[in-house]
From TrEMBL, chain A:
UniProt gene name: nuoK
Localization (cell): Cell membrane; Membrane
Species of provenance: Mucilaginibacter ginsenosidivorans
Protein name: NADH-quinone oxidoreductase subunit K
Keywords linked to the UniProt accession: Cell membrane, Membrane, NAD, Oxidoreductase, Quinone, Translocase, Transmembrane, Transmembrane helix, Transport
NCBIfam families: PRK05715.1-2
Transmembrane segments: 6-24, 31-49, 61-85
Task of the protein: NDH-1 shuttles electrons from NADH, via FMN and iron-sulfur (Fe-S) centers, to quinones in the respiratory chain. The immediate electron acceptor for the enzyme in this species is believed to be a menaquinone. Couples the redox reaction to proton translocation (for every two electrons transferred, four hydrogen ions are translocated across the cytoplasmic membrane), and thus conserves the redox energy in a proton gradient. NDH-1 shuttles electrons from NADH, via FMN and iron-sulfur (Fe-S) centers, to quinones in the respiratory chain. The immediate electron acceptor for the enzyme in this species is believed to be ubiquinone. Couples the redox reaction to proton translocation (for every two electrons transferred, four hydrogen ions are translocated across the cytoplasmic membrane), and thus conserves the redox energy in a proton gradient.
One GO cellular component term noted in the UniProt record for this chain: NADH dehydrogenase complex
Database matches in PANTHER family: NADH-UBIQUINONE OXIDOREDUCTASE CHAIN 4L (PTHR11434:SF16), NADH-UBIQUINONE OXIDOREDUCTASE SUBUNIT ND4L (PTHR11434)
Broadest EC class assigned to this enzyme: translocase
UniProt-listed Enzyme Commission number(s): 7.1.1.-
Reactions catalysed: a quinone + NADH + 5 H(+)(in) = a quinol + NAD(+) + 4 H(+)(out)
Example of a GO biological process term: ATP synthesis coupled electron transport
Subunit structure: NDH-1 is composed of 14 different subunits. Subunits NuoA, H, J, K, L, M, N constitute the membrane sector of the complex.
From TrEMBL, chain B:
Enzyme class: translocase
Protein name: NADH-quinone oxidoreductase subunit J
Transmembrane segments: 6-24, 31-49, 55-77, 98-116, 154-175
UniProt EC number: 7.1.1.-
Range of residues in the leader sequence: none
Gene3D superfamilies linked to this entry: NADH-ubiquinone/plastoquinone oxidoreductase chain 6, subunit NuoJ
Location of this chain's protein in the cell: Cell membrane
Keyword Transmembrane: yes
Amino acid sequence: MISLTDFLIVSAALFCTGIFVVLTKKNAVQVLIGIELMLNAANLNLVAFGRYDRLANGGQIFTLFSITLAAATTAVALAIILNVYKRYKTIDPSKTDSLKD
Amino acid sequence: MTMVKVMFYLMSFVAVASGLYIAASKNLVRSVFMFFVTLMALAGLYVLASADFVAITQIVVYVGGILVLIIFAFMLSGRESLAGIQQQESRFISISKLPALLLAVLFFIVMLNILLKVNGDQLIWVQKAIAGKNVVKPGDATVNNIGINLMSHYLLPFEVISILLLMALVGAAHISRKEKSL
C-alpha cells in the first residue's frame, strides 16, 4: 500500500503548478488548463482519502461529482472565451479589461 | 521496493513533469497535449489508489470530452489568437513571472511542511477505518458499491448535478451561438 502522504505530496505539486499556470499564462485557454490542473489535484486528494471509506465511497463519489462539474465549467468557460474573442479579437486576459464596450 | 511503488513513482513523475512542461511551454498546442499526458498519468494514479471506476470516468469525461472541447475552442478562436502567443517573451523565469513563481513555490513549501507534520496515515479516522476493516483492498470491485450508494445515499446530489449539467450545457450553447445584432 502506498502511504497517504505520497499521494498528498503529488497533489500539492500539481496544485502549485496549476497556480503558476493560472498566474502567468497570456492565453485564456491556457489559464483554463491551469484551473483544470488544480481541480485534478483536488480530485487526487479525494480519491486518496476515499480508500479509507469502503462502505459509503464518499471520496470516490465526490470525485465523480467534481469531474462532472469540471466538464460543465469547461463548456461554459470555453463558450465565454469564444465570445470574448469575437468581441475583442484577443483572448489575452490582461487585455480584456472592460465588461462593456 | 515493490512493483506498485515503482508504478506509483513512475506515474507521479510523469504527472508532475508534464504539469511543469505545461507551465514552461509557450506553445498552446503542446501544452494541450501535455495536459492529455497529465490526465492519463492521473488516471493511473487513481487505479493505484484502487479507484478504478473513477479512473475510467476520468479518461472518458476529461480525455474524451474536455480535451476535445479545448482543441475545438482554440481551433475556432482563429489564427490571430494563436499568433499572439508566439510573441511573448521566451524565458521560463523572467522578472514578470517572479511573483507567480514565488507564490507557487512558497505555497508548495507550506503545504509540504503541513503534510509532513500531519502524517496522513496517523489521522484518527484513518486509524479507525483501518481498525474497522473499512479500507478498499486492491482486489475489490468497487463499481457495485458505488452504483448502490449513488442511488441511495447520494441520490439528491446526483439528481441536482444532472440538472446542473443540463443547464450548463444549454447555457454554453446559448452563449456561444452567433448573434445577428452584436
